[in-house]
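Handout, section B. The chain below has 191 residues.
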Amino acid sequence: MSDALIAREGLILRPAQDSPADLAALHRWLNDPRVLEFYEGRDRPHSLQMVRDNFLAADPLTTACIIEWQGRAVGYLQFSFIEGEELAEYGFASGERVMGLDLFIGEPELWGQGLGSRAVELISAYLSAKYAPDWLTLDPHAGNLRAIRCYEKCGFAKVKYLPAHELHEGRMEDSWLMVRPGRPQPLETRK
């Protein structure tokens, strides 16, 4: 538990490690068609090397985390500052401090039990306290209604429709840019 970023009531967010346990959990999740339907795509099952390269490799701009529930790895979460073209695409000014989140619960039998929203609340509180960003963002596929409801429950609002935003299962999928203040400020200040 000493390596936990944040923990509350049995839920732990900790840095992902290039360890046999984290590699095996991510590999299992990223080969489950139920997970891939919403994350990465069912046409992209991941080899062990793909998992290592895309989720566990040391990327200085992205922090990769494992979500643990009651001592068991149950999902993946990553965060980073958004910069450059992506910042402009989302409609933020170059001086704004904006962080992006991305996550999934990898155990389908745990879907609908509030773990995703609890993880989003925990990481939002952690990032706000540690980095004081102006904004936190997510960009779920427009058709991923479960994720959108989860993020709305956590205080994120849909602010910009992103047509043909991400390649998923062979076609460009629309997404919603969802935003929440990273520091206390009214959401109405967003353009």
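Note. The two ends are 40 Å apart (CA to CA). Compare this with the example in section A.
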